[in-house]
Amino acid sequence: MMSESKPSEQQENQQLWRPNRQRSKLVELAVKSLFGLFALVSVATTIGIIFVLIFETIEFFREVPFWRFLTDKEWTPLFSNAQFGIFVLISATFLTSIIAITVALPLGLLAAIYLSEYAQPKLRQWLKPALEILAGVPTVVYGYFALLFVTPLLQKIIPGLQGFNALSAGMVLGISIIPLVASLSEDAIYAVPQSLREGAYALGATQREAIIGVVLPGALSGIVASFIIAVSRAIGETMIVAIAAGQNPTLGLNPFVPIMTMTAYIVQVSLGDTPAGSLAFKTIFAVGMTLFVLTLILNVFSFWFVRRFREKYE
C-alpha cells in the first residue's frame, strides 16, 4: 500500500518537465517577438525613407515640370538661370559605374574561380580573408588614393587627362567592389555539388573544361546576383566619385574630364549653405528618388533573373 501511494518516477519527471517546457515556450516566444521587432524596425525605416523621398520629390515637381527634369541638357539648379536636366547626372553615374564593373567583374570572377577551384585549402583560408580586407577600407581613403596616386599615374600615360576625371574614379571604384564580386561569386561556385565536377571528369573533361562547361553554368544565378549587387554598389558610391571625379556637371561619356554623379551632387548640396526648404534643397530628394528607382530596378531584375534561372534548371 505504501509503494502504491508514492508517485512513480515517471510521474515525477513529468511534473518537473512541464514547468521546463512552459519556460522554454516563453523563452522561444520572447526570442521570436524580439527578432520580429528587429525586422519590423528595419522595414519601418525603409518605408519611412521611401515616404520622405516621395513627399519631397512631389514638392519638387510642383515647382519644376517633370518634362524639364527629363529634357533639360544642363544641371545648374544652384545658378540664377536654373536648369534641371537629370540625365547629366545619370550619364556621369553610369560612366563611372561602367568603368568600375569593367574592372571589378572580370577580376572578381577570376579571383573567385581561383579560390574555389585552384587554390589549396590552406592558401584559401588566408587568401580569401586578405581579399575581403579591401571591403573594410574606408571609401574616403579610396578617393584620395584615386586622386593622389592613380590620377598622376594615368596622366603620365594619357596626355591631357585632367586632375579630376571619371577614369581614375571609376577604376578605383572597381577595385573597391572586387571583394564583393569575388566573395559572393566564390560562395556560389563553391556551392556547386562536387558530383557535377566528377561527372565531367569521368566524361574526359579537363579541369578548365569542367569549370567552363559545368561549374560556371551551375553557379550562374549566384554569379549574376553578385554582379547586380556590385553594380548597385557602384551606382550608390559617394566619397570616391565626390573626391576623384570632381563636381562639374557635364553631359556626355568622356572619361577624361571632371564630372558630377548623383551622389556627388547630394554631397555638395548637403554640405553647402543651401537653405532648407528651397528649390535647390529639394533637388537632392529628386536626385535621391532617381537613384533609388535605378537601384530598385537593378535589384528587381536580379531577383527575377535568379528565380527564372532556378526554375529553368530545377
Largest sheet, in brief, is:
none
| Outline | globular
Tell me the total number of β-strands.
0
Spatial extent as radius of gyration: 27 Å
User: In the CATH hierarchy, what is the class of the largest domain?
Assistant: Mainly Alpha
Structural class, please? mainly alpha
Order of helices and strands: HHHHHHHHHHHHH
The proportion of residues in beta strands is under 5%
Stated plainly, the CATH topology of the largest domain is called MetI-like fold
Helical content band: over 70%
What would the average pLDDT be, to the nearest integer? Answer: 84
Features:
2 domains, disordered N terminus
Describe the structure.
There is one protein chain. It contains 13 helices and no strands. The chain is mainly α and 314 residues long. It folds into 2 domains: 2-63; 69-313, MetI-like (MetI-like fold), CATH 1.10.3720.10. Helix 2 (9-63) packs across helix 13 (279-313) and helix 7 runs antiparallel to helix 10. The chain starts with a helix and ends with a helix.
Question: In a few lines, what is going on in this structure?
Answer:
By secondary structure, the protein is mainly alpha-helical.
Write the layout of secondary structure elements.
Elements lengths: L1 H4 L3 H55 L2 H6 L14 H33 L2 H12 L6 H19 L8 H25 L3 H9 L4 H12 L1 H16 L3 H6 L17 H9 L8 H35 L1
Helix pairs in contact: 2-13, 4-7, 4-10, 6-7, 7-10, 8-9, 10-13, 12-13
